[in-house]
Amino acid sequence: MKRREFITLIGGAAAWPLAAHAQQGERARRIGVLIGLSANDPESSRRLTAFRQGLQELGWFDGRNVRLDVRWATGDADRFRQYAAELIEHDPAVILALGSTTLGPLQQTTRTVPIVFALVADPVGGGFVQSLAKPGGNATGFTLFEYSISGKWLQLLKEIAPRTTRVAFLRDHASPSGIGQFAALQSAASLIGVEVSPANVRDADEIERNVGAFARGSNGGLIVTTTSVAIVHRELIIELAARHKLPTIYWDRFYVADGGLISYGADTIDQCRRAAEYIDRILNGEKPGDLPVQAATKYQLSINLKTAKTLDLEVPPTLLARADEVIE
To answer: Which domains does the chain have, with CATH numbers?
Structure first.
């Protein structure tokens, strides 16, 4: 072999690792993530961590073969729309939408980019998919619950606070789930003999104003629905419930961990982890419209006994026996 050919061969061999590294970087798939909470919210961090862990278990590592573009909307309607457009402009292979308030703006922006959702209540009723078995379109994922769970919340609230005869339903009136849940709650309330009324929660001022007005009556209680605004302002809601002596039921355990009375709902962290399974299947060539929407598989009942004592409530032993978590 001639000297010049040998040098060329050695030089080419030395460049192989760099070329291979560059190609690997080019193969990194972009995954958009839209979260309705703030970046510094511990619940936001738990959800994103669970999703990352799910990806890693399937061989996808952020910064290696995938790149996560994460946006936090902080419960702001304008930010939902803005960040939905930003994520789609980056030409992602797939987008993860956590919650109905994130899924709506994304589908309004694109009907072609694949979307995997989690923490969405009744996606059929909300108009996000055609059916659970055959979603069609560009979205599929994991449903948090059906609207009928509103009746269960009302039953549990009456069980822990039997004197309750009036219930305010804290909802985001701009969200399909807020409207659908209230309709289901009205049906259940007529059977139980409880008067229910909606209370909109667009921002902190409206929350404080509506809860304060409702608390002027007697024997009242609250039901807090799945809305990003309520999560962002959960400390305020919990404080108002304590100040006005309003027994309140929530849809997720983190409210109870923060001082809320009682919660019943799906394991949200488990859903975020499971969402990685559908992301993996889409990255490997499957279409979201062909993947059936999956229902929640884990539900949790949590009770805060300290809060119950503050509200002068004696939790029935039968209810305590059914609880998955009791905070003392």
So the answer is: 8-146+267-298 (3.40.50.2300), 149-266+300-327 (3.40.50.2300)
